[in-house]
Design brief:
The protein is mainly beta and about 180 residues long. The protein has one helix and ten strands; from the N terminus they run αββββββββββ.
Length: about 180
């Protein structure tokens, strides 16, 4: 009989007791997902040409840290491409922010830098197009991919085009963050 009473008491404790506190799972839509936003590790996390990342100098410092991506500036006809692809989990959107500046001796719109954001399931879009008359000090720009019910990939692209003659324009990009949002 004693065994039966102990068993009944144990049953009451396990079924009617207080719930153990649980730690909430981290919000899935709050991470910064670009692995090398400031180019401090060269082109890690990016697809880039060989001379894309440079170390800042006192005359042309990086926005933060020591390095930044640079485009054009050679007075030759060529294009440069810098691209990174990140994953956007289901139920999340993406905020892309970056800093950019230019230095130029051009007087006509010949050299340019386009920033694009392509999200799977949507046509890629050029979000910004910069020319020789862009500001020479660092300015922040942003683009947004809206929330969707399915997982997607986003490709952040910077494409510059330079033409020989008519002056030289150098475009610089730094601190390219890709932050998830709910």
């Amino acid at each position: 009989m004693k065994v039966l009473v102990v068993l009944a008491a144990a049953l009451v404790v396990t079924t009617g007791g207080a719930q153990a506190p649980t730690t909430p799972a981290p919000a899935p839509c709050t991470a910064q997902v670009q692995v090398n936003p400031s180019f401090e590790r060269g082109t890690a996390g990016w697809t880039a040409g060989p001379r894309m990342v440079v170390l800042g100098t006192p005359e042309r410092p990086a926005h933060t840290g020591r390095a930044y991506a640079t485009f054009a500036g050679l007075d030759v006809t060529r294009t440069d491409l810098l691209r990174s692809t990140v994953t956007i989990p289901a139920g999340c959107g993406l905020d892309v922010k970056f800093f950019a500046r230019a230095g130029s001796t051009e007087t006509t719109r010949g050299d340019y830098l386009n920033m694009g954001l392509g999200v799977s399931g949507e046509p890629p879009k050029t979000r910004f197009s910069f020319a020789f008359d862009m500001r020479t000090d660092w300015q922040q720009y942003s683009a947004v991919a809206s929330v969707a019910a399915t997982e997607r990939t986003a490709t952040i692209t910077f494409l510059s085009s330079e033409s020989a003659g008519g002056g030289v324009t150098t475009f610089d990009v730094d601190d390219v963050t890709a932050t998830l949002h709910p």
